[in-house]
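PROTEIN DATA CARD
Card holder: Alpha-carbonic anhydrase domain-containing protein
Chain length: 366
Origin: Meloidogyne enterolobii
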Amino acid sequence: MSIFLIQVDYITALLTFAKAMNDSEFNKEIVSAMDSKCKGSIAEATTNYNLMMFALIVALFGIGYMFYCHVMTMYDARQTQTSNAQTEAIGRLQTTVNELVVEVRGQPSNRLDHNIQPINAYKQSPINISPASTAYDLTISNPFFGVDYANKEYCVKNFDGLCIIPTATRNLPSFQCGVFRNQVFHLEKIMINWGTSHNNGSLHTINNEGFAAEIQFIHRNKKFTNLSNALKHPEEPGALFIAVLLREATDDNQILEPLIAALPNVIYDSGTNSSRLNNFDPALLLEFINDHQFWLYEGSEAYEPFRETVQWLVSHSVLSISQNQLGRLRVLRKTPQGSDLSQPLLSTRALQPLNDRIVRSSFIWH
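Structure generated from the sequence above:
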């Protein structure tokens, strides 16, 4: 009996399903479900296709970029080789020119001429300092100065220019300035330049005015063992050069008298000969440590090889030097004694372009 009832229920269910199949609304639902499933499959296939195409494009782009990098690397390497070859050729040419110049002028072949200009140089010294090229910098006004030049031993030499050299190997003369974070600079030497008249002896000029002479204090940062190493580190700065200008006057400058008295011993360029200076205190020449008026700019050595890693401090205060003292300097010769060519010891260099550099001033200059 129960089996019969189950069969009746099954038949009833089939009849109900058949009737539903004839119902249009039911048919619509089935078609809609099938359509949605087909659309989903198509969308999924489209998405997969797009992903494959995107991956292919990325792969092709990567291969192209790698090829481009390889080509550019080869190009840069060839350009570097060409540039190095050109630089070496220019260097050899400049050396040849230097040797020709010094041979024509009768100087020893290992001494470079001071008028040869470096190639691709943009921060050369000396310069003309004018109000138009300076800017007042409050951060360098009224700085601390510490100068320890006194009670030291010095000698004067006539070798590739007149220079004063500290003779001590310890307790070297030193200079400090608050502008440079109180770093300590050792005095390497003092160079002196002069000319043939009252206005062509200085390296630097002020507002287009030249002076009879200029004294340069060449310092290296004590962090470095020598000046050559110091000049490789302009960020410290490694080298600090101080320029003091001298105007021709009638009376002798007594601070310079110990130097003037020693000049007869170094009239000729002997290479090794020197004369001791007695009671000489070069700190007395630094007037700017009292009035705090000076200029700062980034420049170069004023002699070969003109490395552009020098911080220059130019004193606004101008000292005096008498006509008599200038005459004693002009007697000096840059040739050895007995040489057929008796050349005056003049080592001034032409003014160099500023090239958009800004000269910082510690005072307001009108």
